């Protein structure tokens, strides 16, 4: 791997002082995943990164970005010393963006940021050297880290920008300086920190403040708050392209067909018909895919290749990944399907996930129940403010609920959904995921389709792991 940062360039970027000459091939903030030759950034988060500098250097770090020499670090250790480590990381990100000669896309939105970012990675990688944020690195340290890690020969970069409080998106967008900015949607997420859905829209719209001159804003045109997004983009002097399902959108999805393992969509883009697919069920994936194709168009990419590459995209674990759990090593039909959407949840993404489950095909005449069922395990949705009780309770009235056979709920807020469900659909309620896990084997059977979804802090990934173990246990050889 080529050199990403030399000590001289890092000093120039940060205004810091280097104790030695060094060169780094990567940037890391975690000694658990650090690679030999990385620059270790000693951020202060849950723990002070300075406490891990010795370990990072022992693991082969090229140098460490610090605000002081930590205790136990040798006098001749390679250190890049700055006044503030967070500011130093931002300076590296700013320099990394400035030296990059390609094009940058930034994505924000209440729902669908990460999946849209990954669709963009898939599409752009087919037409140039592409660098994109890892996981959900979309906050005050994740965005500059993504930029600081960007290889010098990058042709396309994709940054995800998130927020929890007002005033977070605009500074990050100005750091990224995107050529194309996407807003997937505006939904009641993080309402605890905002006074209204309109306030959230203004925050999302501020991504336009960082657009490069002549940049393109690709905005969801189906929302009550779409005018707020459009007005902000107009003030920034952006070229505006809307996407969605309404007739007023520049890039319009006119038909969506949800299958068990694929979503096929038709629409009109650039005043021409278009047919495309994504290898996962979900209306929301198809709509956001139209935004991805609009971004590809804004970047001047080949349309046919973009559509073909998009068709190979699948979501990562925790974000709608679908898999078969085999219960018998010989009788391969003895299996059920798992939809792993346990990473996060708000009312909009919950409704989208329930639509996918409602459309899933179950298989009858298998297992002890002999009737395939659609089963959901739903955990609390966080940061919804004063309306959190209603947001949970009102899920019971969604039309997709009528197609489900059992809804198991986890958490104090989901207790309200549990009580609102009709008896024939009401499953178990538990305070914690650990308590819910104890009854999984009794709940599930061959032929079922199972959705697991909730806010990450609820720990429903524990249920996903336990469900997967049901298959691994069945396939393990006898001793």
Automatic annotation (TrEMBL):
Top-level taxon of the source organism: Bacteria
A Pfam family matched in the record: Mur_ligase
Catalytic activity, reaction form: D-alanyl-D-alanine + UDP-N-acetyl-alpha-D-muramoyl-L-alanyl-gamma-D-glutamyl-meso-2,6-diaminopimelate + ATP = UDP-N-acetyl-alpha-D-muramoyl-L-alanyl-gamma-D-glutamyl-meso-2,6-diaminopimeloyl-D-alanyl-D-alanine + ADP + phosphate + H(+)
Residue ranges of domain Mur ligase central in the record: 107-296
Domain Mur ligase C-terminal: 330-455
GO biological process: cell division; cell wall organization; peptidoglycan biosynthetic process; regulation of cell shape
EC number in record: 6.3.2.10
One term of GO molecular function: UDP-N-acetylmuramoyl-tripeptide-D-alanyl-D-alanine ligase activity
Cleavable signal peptide: none
UniProt cross-references to HAMAP family, sorted A to Z: MurF
Similarity field: Belongs to the MurCDEF family. MurF subfamily.
Protein name, entry field: UDP-N-acetylmuramoyl-tripeptide--D-alanyl-D-alanine ligase
Organism: Roseivivax sediminis
């Amino acid at each position: 791997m080529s050199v990403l940062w030399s000590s001289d360039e890092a000093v120039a970027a940060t205004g810091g002082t280097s104790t030695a000459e060094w060169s780094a091939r990567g940037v890391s903030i975690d000694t658990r995943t650090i690679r030999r030759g990385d620059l270790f950034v000693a951020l202060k988060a849950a723990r002070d990164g300075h406490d891990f500098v010795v370990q990072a250097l022992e693991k082969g770090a090229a140098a460490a970005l610090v605000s002081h020499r930590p205790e136990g670090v040798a006098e001749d250790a390679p250190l890049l010393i700055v006044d503030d480590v967070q500011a130093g990381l931002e300076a590296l990100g700013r320099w990394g963006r400035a030296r990059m000669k390609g094009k940058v896309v930034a994505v924000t939105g209440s729902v669908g940021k990460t999946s849209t970012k990954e669709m963009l990675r898939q599409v752009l990688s087919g037409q140039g050297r592409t660098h994109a944020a890892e996981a959900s690195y979309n906050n005050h340290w994740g965005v500059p880290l993504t930029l600081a890690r960007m290889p010098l020969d990058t042709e396309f970069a994709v940054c995800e920008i998130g927020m929890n409080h007002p005033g977070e998106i605009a500074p990050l967008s100005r750091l990224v300086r995107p050529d194309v900015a996407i807003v997937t949607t505006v939904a009641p997420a993080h309402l605890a920190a905002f006074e209204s859905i309109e306030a959230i829209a203004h925050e999302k719209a501020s991504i336009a403040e960082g657009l490069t001159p002549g940049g393109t804003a690709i905005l969801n045109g189906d929302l009550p708050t779409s005018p707020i997004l459009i007005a902000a983009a107009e003030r920034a002097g952006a070229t505006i392209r809307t996407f969605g399902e309404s007739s007023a959108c520049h890039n319009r999805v006119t038909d969506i067909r949800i299958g068990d393992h694929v979503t096929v969509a038709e629409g009109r883009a650039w005043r021409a018909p278009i047919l495309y697919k994504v290898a996962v069920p979900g209306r929301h994936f198809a709509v956001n895919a139209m935004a991805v194709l609009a971004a590809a168009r804004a970047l001047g990419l080949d349309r046919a290749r973009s559509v073909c590459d998009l068709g190979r995209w699948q979501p990562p674990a925790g974000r709608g990944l679908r898999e078969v759990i085999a219960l018998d090593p010989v009788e391969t039909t003895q299996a059920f399907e798992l939809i792993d959407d346990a990473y996060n949840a708000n009312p909009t993404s919950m409704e989208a996930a329930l639509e996918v489950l409602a459309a899933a095909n179950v298989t009858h005449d298998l297992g002890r129940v002999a009737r395939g069922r659609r089963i959901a395990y739903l955990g609390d949705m966080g940061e919804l403010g004063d309306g959190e009780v209603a947001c949970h309770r009102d899920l019971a009235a969604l039309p997709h609920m009528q197609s489900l056979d059992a809804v198991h709920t986890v958490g104090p807020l989901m207790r309200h959904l549990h009580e609102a469900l009709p008896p024939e659909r009401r499953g178990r309620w538990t305070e914690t995921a650990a308590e819910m896990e104890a009854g999984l084997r009794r709940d599930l059977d061959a032929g079922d389709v199972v959705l697991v979804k909730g806010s990450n802090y609820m720990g429903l990934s524990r249920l996903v792991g336990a469900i997967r173990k049901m298959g691994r246990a069945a396939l393990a050889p006898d001793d």
